[in-house]
Amino acid sequence: VNDPAGVPIDSLCRPSSSPQAITAGCIGKDGAALTDSSTACESCGSGFFLFRGGCYKAGQVPGSSICTKTEGGRCTTCKTEGSYIFQNKAATVTLGNECILCSDAKGADGVTGVAGCSQCTKADSNTGAATCSACQAGYVKDANANVCKPCGTGCSACSVDNTDQCTACLEGKYLNGNACIDGTGDTCGQGKYADPTTNECKSCATETSIPECTACTYSDSLQKPVCSACNSAEQNKLLKKNTDGTTTCVDANGCKSGSTHFVNDSSDKCIPCNDTTTGSTDNDRGKEGCMTCTKSSGQAPVCSACLSGYTGTDTCTKCADNCATCSEANNENRCLTCMTGYFPVDATDSQGKRCVPCDDAASGIEGCATCSFSGSLACSSCKPNYKQSGPADSVICTKACEDPTACGGTAGACNAIVISASGEMTYYCSLCGDSTKIPIDGKCVDKNTNANSNTCDRGVCTQCADGYFLYMGGCYNTQATPGNLMCKTAEGGFCTAAANNRYFKIPGASNQQQSVLACENPVGTTVGDSAYVGVEDCAACTAPSEAPSGAMAPARCTACSSSNKKPSLLGSGCFTCAMDGCSHCSADGVCEACTSAEQRPSTDGKQCIACNISGCTRCSEASKCSQCSDGYRLEGDTCVSTGPNLSTGAIAGISVAAVVVVGGLVGFLCWWFVCRGKA
């Protein structure tokens, strides 16, 4: 490692004077003390071992994946079972080179690995190259030689006969025929889209089940592709946008005036009466809250009835959240009837009604999904994973995995929350009431049948075997349900890749800690003295940065489950934001960004307006900018680049970005060079 940030301790770069470096016994050449410019250890103390310039603690991740036995700061037994490492059997082994990476073509003491190799066995003699049995991602094994051949650009797997012919792609790349591309714009080709769930370019017509679909994009919130253009020239089809965000292709008969949609003036789109963003002019835009409308060519649509949750007719104004009908707009105490899943209670001002969920903690029924109220509350259906019993008009909901036949009947035993790709939340066993059973794949099984060497006792698991990962008290297999809903791959007992963007991999987690979490999981988990938690109502997210000691880090939300909510630009929450065309909103319901690249939020953030001006973040009216981003200044109604004379905000932003990038590189390089090694 050649980095001024410090010395590698357990794969992280630590300052040479840090408690971690001192505890590890990291010292310089010939026993010399470390200096501020030291970048490697020359020897380690008791309980640690030296490996490629770093000190690793025996018996804990990541040291446990390298070495199983140590003595005097040296590894005496490498972890070679199905591993990426092998034991150096040279007559004289230099300190720190007891274990050789299968991919280390340079090696030490006359012993080497094979470039690009991921699994191997030591050479038959005590010197020479190891025998490679499997190659790293981006390489392919030559069947006739002890060689891993590098694949073409972006490939994770390729043909051994032609390494430029990809069969699978690295993360962030997409397989298109035999090539791996970045998937941006139209790089997948006409009629195709980049599918992030399989890292492939797929046919829009096939995957949307709409034969006339000629273009589409993948929707994070819907977890599937959505058609964006139809074959209007040859088949005279219109793109019909549905209120749930999906689309389809219809003929003119499927978009009649007076219904919930209207045909735009250019006759290529069937637009919902409440869609205020799709059209480029007022004549082609719907009205907020409108359910049915009529449209004449060259004129704006006229609303004839409002959607549930709005009041009025030709002009619709929004009721408070959860009200189906109301006597006064935007007042939670003036509800007349409630949305499905809610029931009326007395208003806080005692002059009307407000709507609360059927499972409201104060006055609802636990586990109830839909209900009715006529003098008293009665549940009509239960939420997922609640056992339903009793008469149809007054059902009883019992959390299914607290049934005596499931988790042992122990209260609070089924808190392992698993969220499916469609967003359905299901509970599994996090604890087994019977101490002879353990939670595997969310179910309590006999401890004696645990053939996969998961470490579990007294009804809970604390460490999992290879191919399994620890999650909320149990061990889950990535090849079985529900484990495959959360994690795609697991190595050494912890999740290395989330199954989809409904989950994120927890930074810094080990195989003795929970390593994956759902974007909207409200329970969260701890890693050391830091905590990680999901974001309420979040449907897709990315992992946060590693939380500082004693702090909590939420997921960075990129899409919300509820159609009337949008994530903030920072991804810190999902906020009520019913305005059409807005992609991101702040906590006070102000629009921060628009879905269309042709639009910008208004100055007050209450709508998205046509204003495609480079560098502009807000507009006062169509094509008139009122606020510019950093690196631009406002001149009249447009934004002008400030060029090399960067604004204070821009300089601050670059400084922060630099710190983040350097910090990320420090951790990554320490791991890559110290723990994995250069290929």
From TrEMBL:
Residue stretches making up the EGF-like domain: 101-149, 150-181, 272-317, 318-356, 357-398, 400-445, 610-640
Bilayer-spanning residue ranges: 650-674
InterPro entries in UniProt: EGF (IPR000742), Furin_repeat (IPR006212), Giardia_VSA (IPR052798), Giardia_VSP (IPR005127), Growth_fac_rcpt_cys_sf (IPR009030)
Family annotation (Gene3D superfamilies): Hormone Receptor, Insulin-like Growth Factor Receptor 1, Chain A, domain 2
KW Ribonucleoprotein (keyword) present: no
SUPFAM superfamilies (alphabetical): Growth factor receptor domain
Matching Pfam families: VSP
Source superkingdom: Eukaryota
Name this polypeptide is given: Variant-specific surface protein
Organism expressing this protein natively: Giardia intestinalis (Giardia lamblia)
Lineage, highest ranks first: Eukaryota, Metamonada, Diplomonadida, Hexamitidae, Giardiinae
